[in-house]
Design goal:
Number of helices: 3
Largest sheet: none
Structural class: mainly alpha
Strand content: under 5%
Helix content: 40-55%
Radius of gyration: 24 Å
Shape: flat
Distance between the termini: 58 Å
Length: 80
């Protein structure tokens, strides 16, 4: 027979963990209306809206991170 304290801890873990996991899974989903998509495609919503700043950051990243490459690829248009 299992320890009753162990069984109680398992039940409490399930009771508290399942709602948290369920809520976390639902919070990442969002439906965007067609009329609101224009606001999401606004340049201010981009990760790096400034093209000059983007090129400066990509130029300095290998020195800051201590690694080079991987930012662009070569090859055909098929991704190979």
């Amino acid at each position: 027979m299992k320890n009753p304290a162990f069984r109680k801890s398992i039940i409490l873990t399930i009771v508290f963990a399942l709602p948290v996991l369920f809520g976390t899974g639902l919070s990442g989903c969002a439906r965007v209306q067609q009329k609101d998509r224009e606001y999401l495609s606004d340049p201010i919503m981009q990760r790096i809206p400034d093209p000059l700043g983007s090129s400066m950051e990509s130029h300095n990243r290998p020195r800051r991170e201590g690694a080079a490459g991987g930012s662009s690829g070569s090859g055909g248009g098929c991704g190979c």
